[in-house]
Every structure is written in structure tokens, then in C-alpha cells.
């Protein structure tokens, strides 16, 4: 099977319950819908159950407003023994105009009925003309391996426990494991709370980076989310988070990563009047994210439903 043949599509209509006070799509819904499409693409190719293991370099490029049509396309772009790399793009459609709204990279793991990793058992071929995209995802996956092995952000003394909640059956797909899309929806809200608490203003989600789902969360677990400010720039603020779960299986770290928000007071990126904050790693993460977001904004519609990211290679 070729990468192009793994295409999965979906369409969403943005209604009142999906928007934030600015009248634009709430970031948590976008993340959940991206995960939905990525999950379907991975399940369809693997012909079995999958769980989200990693989410990275997810950029919010164009605003999505109330009443907009939002189109999604997802492709499996890489396969290892028990995991699949997936690209999901979304496009906002207004009349005959189509613009890239979001692009995200994900890693899913195929699991058996006991929730353990199991071989995908299939190979994937790269289409002619798509070699640059396939090489990019091979390189991205190698970098992701290093992130997956690292400990993730450390919880400092100035971090806060912002929420505890019970993982319910309605938060899962199978009644056993918490669905990654549901967790991302909650994390977008909780990291926003941290950003607003640090510097109150009007924020929108700009990007999501290096989110690692380290261990499963089971229905019935108590889930605790801790957040802290990891970087403050001129108009943006990055929030790190750590998720822990505890229950009959003991207490364990289950996820961690970073959300970046932009101050949109006045309807455009505005200054955050707070002291700069961050280290070399967070500064490099910001610079790479801003650089890539600028490139993505230049992309144009592709023919034959090919990924817009092909234009970068």
C-alpha cells in the first residue's frame, strides 16, 4: 500500500458550542478532531485498535470562525514494528477559498485486546514525488525517539496542580482506556488557565509540541494535571504540563508536553508585559515553531488531495 492510499477525510461544521469568547474555534476541539482523524487513519491501516503515543509540531495556522466548514485529511506516512506515524492536515473553507488551518504529526501504537503493543504486520510504500515528505517523517521519528526516552518537563516549585478528575467511560472509546483526544481537549483548557493566571489577557492556542503519552490512563483512575510557565516571549507564553494518574495500579506519570498561547488582545498578537522567561531549550523550541509556522502559512492548495506539506520538500 502507498501513503496516498491511506488517506482518510472528514468534515466538521463549526457551531456555537465549538467556539471561544472570540468567536473562533476553541483549540481543544481542534486537537480532539485532529486526533479523531489520525486515529481512524491508523486503525484503518493497522486493521486493529491503536492508542495515541506522541503528538508534536501541531500548528494553528489560520483562524477558524463560527459557521466555517473545516475539512480534515490524514495519512499514514511511516510504519515500524508496532507503531505508525501519521500526518493530519485541516483546511478552513469559506466559499471557494481554502486555507490551511492546522497541521499535526502523531505516532500511534497498535495494541491487542489486553492493551499491549502488537505488530502492525504491514509495510508502506512512498509515492513517487512524495520521497521528501517520507524522508522528513523518518527523520522526525528518529528525533521523536529521543523525546520519548527523555524524562520530560520537571515539576518545579512554582508549578500548580490545576485539576483532578475521574476518568469516566464516556472519556474512552472502549470503556477501558482514556481516549487521547479527550485528554488533549482538557489539557488545552487547563494550560490556558495557567497562562491566564500568570498574565491575564485574551489567549488563543498557537501550537502544541512534544506531548508524550507515556502510560495508559484507565477508566476509574484519578487524573491530576500540573502546569507551569516554561517560556515567556514578547507576544506568546509557553505552558508545560505533567499528567499523573493514580488508582488501583498505583501512581504514575502518564503524559507531559507543552502548549503555546498568543496574546490576542485587540484582535492581533499583542505584547505580554511580563519579564522574559525560559532557558535555551525553550527558546530553541519557540524559534523552530515560529519558523515552521511561517512556512506553513505560505502553502497553497494541492491537486489530487495530496498533503500541503509536500510543498516544503
TrEMBL record:
<dbReference type="InterPro" id="IPR033120">
    <property type="entry name" value="HOTDOG_ACOT"/>
</dbReference>
<dbReference type="GO" id="GO:0005829">
    <property type="term" value="C:cytosol"/>
</dbReference>
<protein>
    <submittedName>
        <fullName>Acyl-CoA thioesterase</fullName>
    </submittedName>
</protein>
<dbReference type="InterPro" id="IPR029069">
    <property type="entry name" value="HotDog_dom_sf"/>
</dbReference>
<dbReference type="InterPro" id="IPR040170">
    <property type="entry name" value="Cytosol_ACT"/>
</dbReference>
<feature type="domain" description="HotDog ACOT-type">
    <location>
        <begin position="4"/>
        <end position="114"/>
    </location>
</feature>
<keyword id="KW-0378">Hydrolase</keyword>
<dbReference type="InterPro" id="IPR006683">
    <property type="entry name" value="Thioestr_dom"/>
</dbReference>
<dbReference type="Pfam" id="PF03061">
    <property type="entry name" value="4HBT"/>
</dbReference>
<dbReference type="GO" id="GO:0006637">
    <property type="term" value="P:acyl-CoA metabolic process"/>
</dbReference>
<feature type="domain" description="HotDog ACOT-type">
    <location>
        <begin position="157"/>
        <end position="267"/>
    </location>
</feature>
<dbReference type="GO" id="GO:0052816">
    <property type="term" value="F:long-chain fatty acyl-CoA hydrolase activity"/>
</dbReference>
Amino acid at each position: 500500500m502507498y501513503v496516498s492510499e491511506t488517506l482518510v477525510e472528514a468534515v466538521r461544521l463549526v457551531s456555537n458550542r465549538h467556539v471561544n469568547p472570540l468567536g473562533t474555534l476553541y483549540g481543544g476541539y481542534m486537537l480532539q478532531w485532529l486526533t479523531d482523524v489520525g486515529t481512524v487513519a491508523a486503525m484503518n491501516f493497522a486493521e486493529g485498535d491503536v492508542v495515541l503515543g506522541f503528538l508534536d509540531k501541531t500548528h494553528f495556522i489560520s483562524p477558524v470562525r463560527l459557521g466555517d466548514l473545516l475539512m480534515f485529511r490524514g495519512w499514514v506516512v511511516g510504519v515500524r514494528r508496532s507503531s505508525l506515524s501519521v500526518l493530519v492536515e485541516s483546511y478552513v473553507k469559506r466559499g471557494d477559498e481554502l486555507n490551511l488551518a492546522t497541521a499535526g504529526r502523531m505516532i500511534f501504537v497498535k495494541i491487542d485486546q489486553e492493551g499491549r503493543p502488537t505488530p502492525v504486520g504491514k509495510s508502506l510504500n512512498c509515492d513517487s514525488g512524495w520521497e521528501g515528505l517520507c524522508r522528513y517523517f523518518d527523520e522526525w521519528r528518529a528525533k521523536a525517539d529521543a523525546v520519548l526516552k527523555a524524562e520530560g518537563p520537571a515539576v518545579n516549585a512554582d508549578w500548580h496542580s490545576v485539576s483532578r478528575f475521574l476518568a469516566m467511560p464516556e472519556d474512552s472509546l472502549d470503556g477501558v482506556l482514556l481516549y487521547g483526544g479527550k485528554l488533549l481537549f482538557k489539557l488545552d483548557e487547563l494550560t490556558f488557565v495557567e497562562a491566564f493566571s500568570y498574565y491575564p489577557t485574551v489567549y488563543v492556542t498557537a501550537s502544541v509540541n512534544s506531548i508524550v503519552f507515556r502510560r495508559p490512563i484507565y477508566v476509574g483512575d484519578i487524573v491530576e494535571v500540573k502546569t507551569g510557565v516554561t517560556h515567556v516571549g514578547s507576544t506568546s507564553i509557553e505552558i508545560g504540563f505533567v499528567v499523573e494518574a493514580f488508582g488501583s495500579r498505583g501512581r504514575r506519570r502518564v503524559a507531559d508536553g507543552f502548549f503555546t498561547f498568543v496574546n490576542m488582545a485587540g484582535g492581533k498578537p499583542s505584547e505580554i508585559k511580563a519579564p522574559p522567561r525560559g532557558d535555551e531549550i525553550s527558546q530553541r523550541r519557540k524559534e523552530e515553531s515560529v519558523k515552521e509556522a511561517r512556512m506553513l502559512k505560505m502553502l497553497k492548495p494541492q491537486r489530487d488531495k495530496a498533503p500541503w506539506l509536500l510543498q516544503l520538500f
